[in-house]
């Protein structure tokens, strides 16, 4: 085992079959179509890339390399390959070096079977041992390479490829989405799905299969989401889906039309997805607000009858959950417990019937959150999911789901999905407050009024502050550290601001409740140390003045997001961003936007690509 | 990849606010780190795969060399500007443009990605305009975005204190009828508003650096960005560098340059052809000496743009300054450059050194001007022979 270090991966895969050559169907070589699809999947990982294509005489050609797609484009020569069947892969190693050998696709001994894989095959070492005994030759250190050799072995023993694939479902353990092409059946792509995501795209002249919808969205918006245990094939004229437990399935009943237009998944004239998604927030918020009414109604009824409420998420989604906790506490008087998903194990003896766990995940595939809800369900708790991706794993395994419907988010740093998650929590809190009578009606009405104005308020914030922040970031980029301080709901907002700066501008940023300064962190302050203050129009607003003073006294560079006209705060700050006077609920969204822009422009100022932060992947599907 | 859309570059403007440097020639022919300003646009177009370029200019003779130089990559057609102003320049292209086209201002300097972003919207079949988030919008044409992020309207001269405006970046993809609207309204902003009402121009928000060369100081800003991008030194084998001269950091030193004994060159610095740097002189960060220039001994130059064919005498100090071509600075001239706190100068520079912030700006010396020996120039002072 030691010499076979398991290279786990988080990947994007794509397969395309069409009736004739790519140049006839798409107007360009199939290699280029694969490349474009892989570019749309690059957010899933980007340290190596490869594709396999069936050329005219049925021969399979494999091209692969480590590196980002655009960096190795010339080396791989996507443009040089045309055909009617191809698969591709983009990969992100969690450990083990990315290398040309470990890049997908992998092939069998005779190069007649090629496979791309997303996930982990946990019993690969015993399978590999058996295959080695039978004389198969392995060239990579990946778990995935057992698959082509297994198919080869089955076919050699007289199985059809479809039968071989069916056998794989039975013997492979772990998580996997697999695509298989063969010289025997050059017009089919076989697939298997277990846990790792896989979606079919039904086009007029081509059929697609991929880890995620953006891979083929420019060609078709008719999709089939595959379930665990599904296997089968796609061909230019047919789709065959069988489930290992339920037998053959009529795919026509499972086709859904999604409402994302193809260009929604592209950059649309913005230099980066992140900036595009920041700018899309007014629209995204509007969509969220209008589409969640029924779901919130149902969820609120569940919550009101809960014995205890838990909230969970990872990263940005955790910050949304934490903000949600403040809202439920302050507006509804409901006690809740919020935890980071990966820490779920400590609740093993605590979850019980009558509990509700609200799980927040943009992708709906976050493995830690998935594990947490499985644990909660096992103990009898009910689960509410808040996700942006329809039919993803977490909503599927939950009792009820609220979809943020913010549109696809490609930038690795979450922006519009965070603010729409906050909006979901506000809407739930407002609904519950009404049901419980925990807040006076005039307060609730004024929050509702603010919510209806939220799209135009947030648009104004972007327009007013984008230029100022661009200039300010030129200054911030010179610093190596920053603090983000807030009180009340300003704490999770500060945490999100700090996370954004860390993850894309690579500046060490720490957030904590402002009152904590004198219990330790203030020791780090020296002249010019940037400290951000999230000052809301709430009962903490006077308290935080003292915190600004204590930082200023130590010559920190004090930067504040403050309610308009709050002179007491303004005169104590070096740099002021004035924001409209709002309730803390809508303010949580509005205050987030400048923090997103600060992180974005600081990254730009440092010459970094905010869409591709180092060491990070959009969807974390490994523990 | 070739992109099949004609590009119109407006390159003829003299530039009212910069005319002491241009001396009647178009400002797109000012030099910046070894290239004419308009060459930055052309270079980016070559990189993107554009074929057909129409350059609107005043005097074809001025641009012949450039047209030949880029003729290998681009089909360049020179169009003589018939009427004054930007409107006149646009109308001049009317007979050449029979379809959708790209309109670029030749005095804008930005990285290639900005143009790439604009052209990506053409692939989506959209008319579009580059918008820049700039804090100081007063001297620019601007656009207001509505709630959905679309352009609500264009505003020619924003009223002071009007917030939430984006600067129009001088790069557009437009239908040909735009030219007719410019002709009938006699005004670019109104024509843009009409096109926008009909087609919903797509805003391309550009977040990177972007310079509109309008004031002399903009040359300094531009040379900062361009020199910052130099990631390796290049010294011509024809250059004569004294063995005890000190050369540090990224520098570009062109053919037939001579750096004399004990001179110090501290990059990023550009030194153009046939320039002489005298003994014991110090040329430091963000200086671009365009060529055919003589710098005497014991002279210091920092963050300045020295146009072609100039002489800077011994024992001078030139900082944060722009010197026009064919000018002579006699020995011992000093440019003061720390602006007193109470004075405000448009587009000046804030520099932080050792924890203190300074507003800096030097002198602008017009083309063909002679500065007498031992003169002291005040911050922001403009001197010209006119």
TrEMBL record, chain A:
Presence of the UniProt keyword Transport in the record: no
PROSITE patterns: GATASE_TYPE_2, SIS
Primary residence: cytoplasm
CC terms in the record's Gene Ontology section: cytoplasm
Keyword terms, alphabetized: Aminotransferase, Cytoplasm, Glutamine amidotransferase, Repeat, Transferase
EC number: 2.6.1.16
Signal sequence range: none
Pfam families found in the cross-reference section: GATase_6, SIS
Residue stretches making up the Glutamine amidotransferase type-2 domain: 11-237
Catalytic activity: D-fructose 6-phosphate + L-glutamine = D-glucosamine 6-phosphate + L-glutamate
Catalytic residues of the enzyme: 11 (nucleophile), 618 (for fru-6p isomerization activity)
Gene Ontology MF annotations: carbohydrate derivative binding; glutamine-fructose-6-phosphate transaminase (isomerizing) activity
GO biological process: carbohydrate metabolic process; fructose 6-phosphate metabolic process; protein N-linked glycosylation; UDP-N-acetylglucosamine metabolic process
Residue ranges occupied by any SIS domain in the UniProt entry: 299-438, 472-613
Statement: the UniProt record of this protein carries the keyword Ligase: no
Cell compartment(s), UniProt: Cytoplasm
Domain of life according to the entry: Archaea
Self-association state and partner proteins as the record states: Homodimer.
Database matches in PANTHER family: GLUCOSAMINE--FRUCTOSE-6-PHOSPHATE AMINOTRANSFERASE, ISOMERIZING, GLUTAMINE--FRUCTOSE-6-PHOSPHATE TRANSAMINASE (ISOMERIZING)
Function according to Swiss-Prot or TrEMBL: Catalyzes the first step in hexosamine metabolism, converting fructose-6P into glucosamine-6P using glutamine as a nitrogen source.
Record-given protein name: Glutamine--fructose-6-phosphate aminotransferase [isomerizing]
Species this protein is from: Ignisphaera aggregans
Automatic annotation (TrEMBL), chain B:
Mannose-1-phosphate guanyltransferase C-terminal domain residues: 265-351
InterPro entries tied to this protein: GlmU-like, GMPPB_C, Hexapep_transf_CS, NTP_transferase_dom, Nucleotide-diphossugar_trans, Trimer_LpxA-like_sf
Organism domain of life: Archaea
Keyword Aminoacyl-tRNA synthetase listed: no
Pathway membership: Nucleotide-sugar biosynthesis; UDP-N-acetyl-alpha-D-glucosamine biosynthesis; UDP-N-acetyl-alpha-D-glucosamine from N-acetyl-alpha-D-glucosamine 1-phosphate: step 1/1; Nucleotide-sugar biosynthesis; UDP-N-acetyl-alpha-D-glucosamine biosynthesis; N-acetyl-alpha-D-glucosamine 1-phosphate from alpha-D-glucosamine 6-phosphate (route II): step 2/2
Descriptive protein name: Nucleotidyl transferase
Keyword Nuclease recorded: no
GO MF annotation, one: glucosamine-1-phosphate N-acetyltransferase activity
Catalytic activity annotation: alpha-D-glucosamine 1-phosphate + acetyl-CoA = N-acetyl-alpha-D-glucosamine 1-phosphate + CoA + H(+); N-acetyl-alpha-D-glucosamine 1-phosphate + UTP + H(+) = UDP-N-acetyl-alpha-D-glucosamine + diphosphate
Classification via Gene3D superfamilies: Hexapeptide repeat proteins, Spore Coat Polysaccharide Biosynthesis Protein SpsA, Chain A
PROSITE patterns membership: HEXAPEP_TRANSFERASES
Alphabetic keyword roster: Acyltransferase, Multifunctional enzyme, Nucleotidyltransferase, Transferase
């Amino acid at each position: 085992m030691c010499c076979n270090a398991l290279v786990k991966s988080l990947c994007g895969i794509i397969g395309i079959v069409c009736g004739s050559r790519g140049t006839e169907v798409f107007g360009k070589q199939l290699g280029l179509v694969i490349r474009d699809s892989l570019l749309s999947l690059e957010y899933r990982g980007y340290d190596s890339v490869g594709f396999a294509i069936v050329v005219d005489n049925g021969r399979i050609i494999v091209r692969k390399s480590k590196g980002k797609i655009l960096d190795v484009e010339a080396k791989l020569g996507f443009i040089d390959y045309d055909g009617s069947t191809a698969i591709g892969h983009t990969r992100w190693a969690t450990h083990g070096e990315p290398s040309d050998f470990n890049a997908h696709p992998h092939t069998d001994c005779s190069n007649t079977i090629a496979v791309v894989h997303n996930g982990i095959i946990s019993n690969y070492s015993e399978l590999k041992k058996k295959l080695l005994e039978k004389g198969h030759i392995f060239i990579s250190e990946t778990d995935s390479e057992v698959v082509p050799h297994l198919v080869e072995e089955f076919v050699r023993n007289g199985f059809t490829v479809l039968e071989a694939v069916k056998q794989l479902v039975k013997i492979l353990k772990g998580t996997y989405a697999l695509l298989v092409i063969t010289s025997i059946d050059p017009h089919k792509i076989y697939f298997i799905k277990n846990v790792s995501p896989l979606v079919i795209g039904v086009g007029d002249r081509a059929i697609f299969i991929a880890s995620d919808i953006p891979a083929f969205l420019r060609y078709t918006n008719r999709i089939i989401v595959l379930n665990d245990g599904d296997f089968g094939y796609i061909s230019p004229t047919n789709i065959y889906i069988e489930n290992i437990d339920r037998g053959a399935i009529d795919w026509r009943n499972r086709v859904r039309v999604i409402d994302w237009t193809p260009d929604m998944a592209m950059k649309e004239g913005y230099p980066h997805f992140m900036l595009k998604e920041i700018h899309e927030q007014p629209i995204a918020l509007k969509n969220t607000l209008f589409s969640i009414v029924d779901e919130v109604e149902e969820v609120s009824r569940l919550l009101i009858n809960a014995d205890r409420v838990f909230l969970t998420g990872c990263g940005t989604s955790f910050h949304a959950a934490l903000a949600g906790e403040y809202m439920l506490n302050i507006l509804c008087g409901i006690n809740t417990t919020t935890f980071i998903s990966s820490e779920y194990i400590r609740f093993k003896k605590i979850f019980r019937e009558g509990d509700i766990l609200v799980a927040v995940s943009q992708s709906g595939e976050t493995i830690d959150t998935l594990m947490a809800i499985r644990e909660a369900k096992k103990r009898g708790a009910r689960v509410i999911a808040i996700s942006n991706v329809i039919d993803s794993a977490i909503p599927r395994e939950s009792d009820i789901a609220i979809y943020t419907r913010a549109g696809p988010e490609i930038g690795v740093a979450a922006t519009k999905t965070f603010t729409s998650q906050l909006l979901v929590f506000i809407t739930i809190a407002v609904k519950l407050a009404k049901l419980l009578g925990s807040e006076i009606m005039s307060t609730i009405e004024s929050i509702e009024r603010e919510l209806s104005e939220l799209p135009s308020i947030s648009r104004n914030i972007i327009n007013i502050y984008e230029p100022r922040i661009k200039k300010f970031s030129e200054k911030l980029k010179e610093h190596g550290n920053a603090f983000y301080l807030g009180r009340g709901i300003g704490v999770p907002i500060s945490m999100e601001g700090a996370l954004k700066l860390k993850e894309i501008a690579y500046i060490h940023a720490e957030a904590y409740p402002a009152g904590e300064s004198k219990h330790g962190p203030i020791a780090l302050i020296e002249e010019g140390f940037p400290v951000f203050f999230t000052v809301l129009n709430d009962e903490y607003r006077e308290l935080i003045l003292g915190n600004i003073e204590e930082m200023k006294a130590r010559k920190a560079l004090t930067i504040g997001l403050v309610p308009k006209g709050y002179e007491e705060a303004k005169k104590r700050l070096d740099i002021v961003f004035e924001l409209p006077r709002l309730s803390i609920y809508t303010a949580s969204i509005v205050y987030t936007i400048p923090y997103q822009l600060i992180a974005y422009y600081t990254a730009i100022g440092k010459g970094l690509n905010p869409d591709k932060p180092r060491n990070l992947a959009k969807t974390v599907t490994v523990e | 990849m070739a992109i099949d859309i004609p590009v119109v570059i407006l390159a003829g403007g003299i530039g009212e606010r910069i005319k002491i440097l241009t001396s009647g020639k178009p400002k797109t022919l000012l030099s910046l780190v070894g290239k004419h300003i308009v060459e930055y646009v052309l270079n980016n177009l070559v990189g993107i795969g554009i074929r057909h370029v129409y350059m609107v200019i005043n005097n074809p003779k001025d641009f012949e060399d450039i047209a030949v130089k880029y003729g290998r990559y681009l089909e360049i057609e020179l169009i003589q500007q018939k009427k004054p102003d930007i409107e006149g320049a646009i109308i001049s292209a009317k007979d050449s443009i029979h379809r959708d086209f790209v309109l670029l201002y030749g005095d804008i300097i930005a990285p290639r990605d900005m143009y790439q972003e604009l052209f990506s919207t053409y692939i989506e079949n959209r008319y579009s305009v580059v918008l820049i988030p700039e804090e100081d919008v007063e001297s620019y044409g601007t656009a207001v975005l509505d709630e959905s992020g679309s352009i609500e309207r264009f505003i020619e001269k924003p009223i002071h204190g009007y917030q939430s405006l984006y600067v129009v970046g001088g790069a557009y993809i437009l239908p040909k009828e735009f030219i007719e609207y410019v002709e009938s309204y006699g005004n670019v902003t109104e024509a843009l508003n009409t096109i926008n009402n009909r087609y919903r121009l797509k805003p391309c928000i550009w977040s990177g650096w972007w310079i509109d060369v309008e004031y002399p100081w903009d040359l300094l800003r531009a040379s900062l960005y361009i020199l910052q991008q130099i990631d390796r030194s290049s010294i011509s084998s024809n250059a004569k560098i004294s063995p005890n001269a000190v050369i540090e950091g990224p520098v570009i030193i062109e053919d037939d340059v001579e750096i004399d004994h004990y001179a110090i060159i501290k990059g990023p610095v550009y030194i153009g052809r046939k320039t002489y740097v005298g003994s014991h002189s110090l040329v430091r960060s963000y200086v671009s000496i365009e060529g055919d220039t003589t710098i005497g001994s014991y002279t210091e130059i920092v963050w300045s743009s020295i146009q072609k064919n100039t002489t800077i005498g011994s024992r001078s100090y030139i900082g944060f300054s722009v010197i026009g071509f064919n000018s002579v600075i006699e020995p011992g001239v000093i440019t003061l450059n720390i602006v007193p706190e109470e004075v405000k100068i448009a587009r000046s520079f804030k520099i932080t050194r050792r924890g203190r912030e300074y507003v800096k700006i030097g002198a602008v010396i017009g083309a063909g001007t002679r500065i007498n020996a031992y003169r002291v120039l005040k911050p922001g002072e403009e001197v010209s022979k006119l």
